[in-house]
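can u pls check wat happens w/ flavin-adenine dinucleotide
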Amino acid sequence: MKVIDKIKNAKSTLFTFELLPPLKGHTIQEIYDTIDPLIEFNPAYINITYHQQEVVYKTRPDGLMEKRVIRKRPGTVAIASAIQNKYKITVVPHMICGGFTKEETEDALIDFHFLGIDNLLALRGDPDKGKRKFVPEKGGHTYTSDLIEQIMNLNKGKYLHEDLEDAMPTNFSVGVAGYPEKHIEAPNLDADLENLKLKVEKGAEYIVTQMFFDNQKYFDFVEKCKNVGINVPIIPGIKPVSTLNDISLLPQTFNIDLPNDLIKEIKKCKTIKDVRQVGVEWAIEQSKELIKSNVPGIHYYTLDQSDNIKKIVKAVF
Ligand code: FAD
């Protein structure tokens, strides 16, 4: 079933969560171990992130540097399909622009279509590690709106090679990312919202937000979206704080602010367990307020650990 139909048919806020494929060399059982404790709360669907290749430099025994291209977390397509089969649940794999030519994008979309996966979260991907600017693959997409256009063309049976006869249309439903505190590269929030609107005009049916720790930022964002004519459901993304380093890492990585009260509570913590408990309590309060204001769903960022998400979901759903 399409995510947008689940949202439209829902009588209350949907519970959803996001998983990362395990690091290379680990097993899919780790994914199942994350899902199993959460399945009793009836998740509406499960997102699976996509991870681009990275360039790493290794020092060889002769002292020279060797360039290697590695993918630390492969397996998105297979994991999505395995979860769908094992749990009979809707899956939403992420599809990114980075690292894909348009032809490779088309092939990946055909794989999803053949696997019976018709929900995707379309994203651009971040710049390569250490780089400030996103560089698309030669012949790939620069912005998510371009990727959505390709997906929507496929939904009309329009493949890259126009000479295909009687080409079957796909049936993808696409969600996109939105940034209540602005995407890091956008010159200002208004400009970012114009680009978000373009993604919706191209065919995105709902928005999932970047994590935020102050609900007012989400409420203001929803209002601003409405003011510029973005009228699709906006699903808030929630991540419980889980390490002391989150105080500096989350703002740096995701261009978000942490409220003073949360920082104070984290700083009082003596152990990692204490920090995780603070994260859980904060996320419970955020979730309760969001549900009270009838948000369509809450998208929890698990980072493949479900003990804290289980405590939150148990308290609010
Ligand atoms: P876009 O919508 O393309 O926007 C990127 C930037 O370009 C923005 O600043 C925007 O304002 C600007 N822009 C957009 N269109 C135009 C235009 N036409 N002209 C000029 N400027 C424009 N990353 C992964 O690699 N894998 C994942 O699985 C993944 N999952 C995510 C899930 C969620 C819910 C979120 C919020 C993020 C996720 N990301 C993931 C991170 C995401 O890839 C990055 O945030 C990336 O930097 C931007 O992606 P986007 O789709 O928002 O890009």
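The pocket of flavin-adenine dinucleotide is lined by residues 49-50, 52, 94, 96, 123-126, 143-145, 177, 183, 185-186, 192, 195, 198-199, 208, 210, 237 (CB under 6 Å).
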